[in-house]
Design brief:
alpha/beta; Rossmann fold; 3 domains; 5-stranded mixed β-sheet; 16 helices; 15% strand; elongated; binds adenosine monophosphate; binds zinc ion
Length: 474
């Protein structure tokens, strides 16, 4: 089965085919962070979802050009810069660095390009100029430039491609200056915002006087520059469908006269303990908050990847504890396979043998079904169960173990969980273990047991195997 994805544009699941005539290259744009604070766990659900899409495309053999912008100028940022009495670059730089560190901690592949809005002012101005020249944008008395929905529709273009809008009640020429607004207040939106004293130093020259770009035009300009006037995939959280993505479509198609994006994918939101996250409810978490509680990025990633991207996900701290246990099962199984396959060169596993691996086939089938991740995890845990059973029955040959291991690595190229590296055994622990072996040899079992307890208290369990002592970190 080919890769099928739910396209918000058609409101249906469609087979994915790239625009590239050779069927190889895929351009993918995901709206990036607005760098005015640390990203919260809801934001991370969306970015981990984008990583899943990219990894699935790569797993399916495509060459992906992944672009994620950095929104480093918009209404909220300017407000915070003013409140913090700092400069735009200093303020956004701090949160951009934190964002990229967190992205790594969550095991996300780094986007190939991370354009910043402030470094694309000429492209933004050029795009607005095109819209003005085509008669779908105008400068209003307040000095700002707005996009005219009426003129755009008058050219036969459709405003409201991602969701149904009631445009009959809209009064022509009514304007909305802020970047964020509800669909009930759909109106001409700002492309270029004329300078106001509250903007401080955050201002650029333009043919319409001093000012700064609106948020929506930033993404149109950066995505077109990086991926061309028409590209394959555009992603974001579901809250971005309106107005952000609808406005991106209008600006881009209004300027180029070409379809903007072939596939729009939207990730559903995340709730925490059943409620919308908010600082006042005390259920607001950044990744850093969770790391400080002793969880790992890998556990958070696993949990965020357990639900289908189009379902609202309820994030809980209990869920994170469960993630630790689930990952422990995978790690244990993978470690046993590594041991069994230790001396076999991977050359012994032919691509044919690997492609015949039944779990890998089922896993691929699940992913290609609109990223059915719950079914994919079902396959992984069936695989863990079967493998453990075969190991316990001694019925797994080294070559089977290696094939299973390579199949896991292929599946993990999508999940990005990795298997936990063997913890390094500290010298003190190794010395205690040796002392215990000596005590056992001398038939001093009381001393041997006492050492075992001491090791356990220090967080280590040891196992006597025919190949020697095996250490396990608790
Ligand atoms: P922002 O930095 O506010 O522009 O948001 C970055 C991304 O996070 C956007 O794609 C939003 O749609 C997404 N997002 C914001 N809140 C949530 C949430 N609670 N659950 C999932 N995604 C979210
Ligand atoms: Zn965007």
């Amino acid at each position: 089965m080919a890769l099928n994805l739910f396209n918000t544009l058609s409101r249906s699941v469609q087979p994915f085919t790239p625009l590239d005539p050779s069927g190889q290259r895929v351009g993918m744009y995901c709206c990036g962070p607005t760098v005015y604070d640390y990203a919260h766990i809801g934001n991370w659900r969306t970015f981990v979802f984008a990583d899943l899409v990219r990894r699935t495309l790569e797993f399916s053999g495509y060459t992906v050009q992944h672009v994620m912008n950095i929104t480093d100028v918009e209404d909220k940022i300017i407000k915070r810069v003013r409140e913090n009495k700092t400069t735009l670059r200093e303020f956004t730089g701090k949160f951009e660095t934190a964002f990229l560190d967190d992205l790594k901690a969550l095991g996300c592949r780094e986007p190939h390009r991370k354009p910043r809005a402030t470094e694309h002012i000429p492209e933004i101005i050029a795009l607005i100029k095109k819209l003005v020249a085509r008669g779908v944008a105008y400068q209003a008395a307040d000095g700002s430039v707005y996009f005219s929905i009426e003129k755009y529709r008058g050219c036969g273009c459709c405003y409201g491609q991602l969701l149904k809008l009631n445009l009959d009640e809209m009064r022509a020429g009514e304007r909305v200056a802020s970047d964020e607004y509800e669909k009930e207040s759909v109106a001409d939106f700002a492309l270029w915002k004329a300078f106001v004293p509250e903007d401080g130093d955050v201002t650029w020259d333009s043919p319409w006087g001093k000012g700064r770009p609106g948020w929506h035009i930033e993404c149109s300009a950066m995505s077109i520059k990086a991926l061309g006037e028409t590209f394959d995939l555009h992603l974001g959280g579901e809250d971005l469908k309106f107005p952000h993505h609808e406005d991106e479509i209008a600006q881009s198609e209004g300027a180029t006269g070409k379809p903007f994006v072939k596939f729009w994918l939207h990730g559903a939101h995340l709730l925490v303990e059943g409620k919308k996250m908010s600082k006042s409810l005390g259920n607001f978490f950044t990744l850093r908050d969770l790391l400080a509680k002793g969880f790992t990025g890998r556990e958070v990633r696993y949990l965020l990847l357990t639900a289908h991207y189009r379902e609202t996900f309820n994030f809980t701290l209990d869920g994170l504890t469960g993630a630790k246990t689930a990952l422990g099962r995978i790690d244990e199984c993978v470690a046993k396979l590594r041991e069994l396959a230790a001396n076999i060169p991977s050359l012994n596993v032919t691509p044919h043998l690997l492609s015949e691996h039944s779990h890998l086939k089922l896993f691929t089938y699940a992913l290609h079904d609109d990223l059915n991740i719950s079914a994919a995890w079902g396959v992984i845990f069936d695989w863990v169960r079967d493998t453990n059973k075969r190991i316990a029955e001694n019925s797994i040959s080294p070559i089977d173990a290696l094939t299973a291991l390579l199949a896991w690595e292929k599946m993990d190229s999508v999940l990005g969980i990795g298997a936990k590296a063997e913890a390094e055994v500290p010298a003190e622990i190794a010395a205690l273990a040796e002392e215990r072996t000596a005590a056992k040899k001398a038939k001093d079992f009381k001393r041997a047991d006492a050492i075992r307890d001491e090791l356990k208290a220090k967080g280590w369990v040891i196992e006597d195997t025919p190949k020697g002592i095996k250490f396990k970190k608790l």
